User: Fold NAD-dependent succinate-semialdehyde dehydrogenase from Rhizobium loti.
Amino acid sequence: MNLAQQIDQDGYDVRRFSHGLYIDGTWRPSSDGQLIDVVDPSSGAVIAAVPDATLDDAATAVEAAAKAAKGWRETAPRKRSEILRRCFELMVERSETLAMLISLENGKALRDARGEVAYAAEFFRWNAEEAVRITGEFGTAPSGTNRIVVDYEPIGICVLITPWNFPAAMATRKIAPALAAGCTVILKPASETPLTAYALAALYSEAGVPAGVINVLTTTSPGPLTSAMLADPRVRKLSFTGSTGVGRTLLGEAAKHVISCSMELGGNAPFVVFDDADLDAALDGAMIAKMRNAGEACTAANRIYVQSGIHERFADGLSKRMAALKVGAGTNADTECGPMITKKAVDKIDRLVKDAVDRGAKVLCGGSILDREGFFYPPTVLSQVSPEADMAHEEIFGPVAPITMFETEAQAIAYANDTEYGLAAYIYTRDVGRGMRVASGIEAGMIGLNRGLMSDPAAPFGGVKQSGLGREGGQHHGIAEFMEAKYIAVTF
Assistant:
């Protein structure tokens, strides 16, 4: 079975949605006819082209979202819930098709792509259940002179900007709660991985999402288009997942128009292993935390700190596991580590590894760019990595595990907090008291205690410090980001 047959095996040809912007429920070219090439990172070959949206296209999308806003806002919560539930069901039905598409345009191993589709679909199921549970508040003013009524209303049109590393999950994590709250949206997916966003747009329409409620634009000029949309007074929310640098720029732009922002930004997650940890469990967790999506994740274990008593055994065990991973095209069934997204990404990883080695790090496996077609970097383990190495302070975003030894609990916490980021952290210890104590001491929005995977639609996702503002997912947290409280003072 060739790749095209695999993509089409359930009768849903996602490729036919790769040549049109999705605005007001219809597919259309960009106003100037320009296109963006989509590249397979496994080979560097162009596999499709999508429209390159203009300022006029962005204005049309805002107009479509505004036209649909009143009807969607007034749609009964139960009806919205049923539509979201249908989105979940269709994603599950088409999961293999979507996974193959993600692997093709993103490069991630098919097993990771399948996991992403399952995770992405869950945001629709979770928010379908939460959509009918949005309640207000009622109480008596302390003075006794009036009643306090608090209602929660949709915030308005939302601009959603998502990255290339999880093209399905990062979109549904924003779209599902926004729709549950009663908002209309404009999604701008990354230009490297637009096909998944367009395939999902078709699925949303089939599930019953009305025209104009979800609009999708791809562009090579994200700055000007975003600025133009935020300048429209009908746009009241910006939700962004991406780098801290871009996030800072967007926050400045949003501030000009006093627009509510949710920001899920960069990460530099520490993975702390104490001497009393279950070694096999810690190694299992490290492989998950480090190698999910080949390390191209904001929650990836970026700095691995291992206490001296277990350091050598952990380093040996991790290097053996990493060296054994099968590297190949994401769409190959046996691939365990796919390519990086671009050559630029590979070059950055190589720079960080060379810097660490120059500062005294020892290469236990991998450590150099592979001589092959595509954008590949091998699974790599470094030991004796200096806390001063560049990779201790920059996101690696690749399959490199740098190990640094520590002696005391206080030293581990100090190492973990020596970063401007605070998204995620991981701790392995059999001592629950120590685990909770260290979790309290580490500055991060999310902690995995004896777990290498923490993301869950039912839990609030987000960071502290330079890792962002607001939360996505969780009971009430995700939907709350897309609502505003209205206070009504009532005298009977």
User: Anything to note?
Assistant: Confidence is low (pLDDT under 50) at residues 1-12. Residues 34 and 52 are 5 Å apart (CA to CA). The first helix runs from residue 3 to 8. The longest strand covers residues 147-154.
